[in-house]
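Q: Could you fold this chain for me?
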Amino acid sequence: MKITQIRSFSVQDEDGRGYMIVRVDTDAGHHGLGEVGIRNWGRAINEAIEHLSEFVIGADPWSTEKLWQEMFRSGFFPADKVYTCAISAIDIALWDIKGKSVDMPVYKLLGGPVRDKVVCYPHTQGRTIDELVANSVAAVEAGWKFVRWGQPETGGQFEAGGISTLEPVESMRIAVEQMGRVREAVGPEIQMTFDVHTRLDTAHVVQMCKELEQFKPFFIEDPIRSENQGSYRNLRRQINLPIAAGEQWATKWPFREVIEEDLIDYARIDLCIVGGITEALKITHWAETHYIDIVPHNPLGPVSAAACVALCMASTNVGVQEMPRRPGSYATELFPQQLEWANGYSWCPDAPGLGVEFDIEAAEHAAIDPGGSMPRLRRNDGALTNW
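A: Sure. Below is the predicted structure, expressed as structure tokens.
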């Protein structure tokens, strides 16, 4: 069996959400699906996919480790984040092909299930505190065991291409009020995860976390900017809440410091940025030696979700899986077959590969520009800050 073609599809579902899907075909009639982690960089990633095709087309799709090394190292300079997004999508598609070629789910190729289902958390964001509380209560009533939201903006409309405001001290005050209201509404048995989204600096995070301790969140996610992993040493000394981080890190190497020095409690591996399933497996097993659980980052679509759940089903060290929306409740024209879900848990269907189907004809009618603009945040003084 040899790889014959690699294609990418930038598409939009009926609700306006975008996805960048990669399909890898073989001469045996099997094909695999992958997903790109930073869709708004789609034009650059498409060029990377075209370049990487030179190393992949004609190769055996079962040679995932060899092909990963070829894609990552063949330019002499190690692949950057644009390239690791491309590598991730291709690698996930190769694992999908491997499963389909032997009529076996990917999670069984990864070692088989150590759990029957994976607990997940939805996104329960709200534009106001009342809306956040209502969304959180609705999620619990729908069967979710977790709720999740992020560091609140303090002005403007936070949307693609838009500019809104985040003034740290004001945002911190709102965040504390939010968590108190949500805890009161959902009760002590429901877990809360809170995503700072790298929006604050260390001093602000420390102060906020001291006030959030009383509400016992499951973890605080990405509390500081991601460029300097060593900054987590200072943070670790000063806060008493579990820390989750890693969604912006490409490949295993940025995880080295925080794993080896036990600077985080949960590894937020993004399979569609980090280098696919091949690389995520290494980080997962490495984290296990430090009793660090994985919480795979999954803000994307059904292919990313399936890859994440397959990894979680086959891994012992799992905290919870991000699942913004209930599988099967969105983008069903593009993805007629998705993950299974019930009562806050998700699992892979007993189908070959990832168990996700992608309708090419529907994709052609839903095509969009592979680029796009991200939301932007500014402080009251006009300075740009992380969104």
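A (continued): The CA atoms of residues 299 and 324 lie 6 Å apart.
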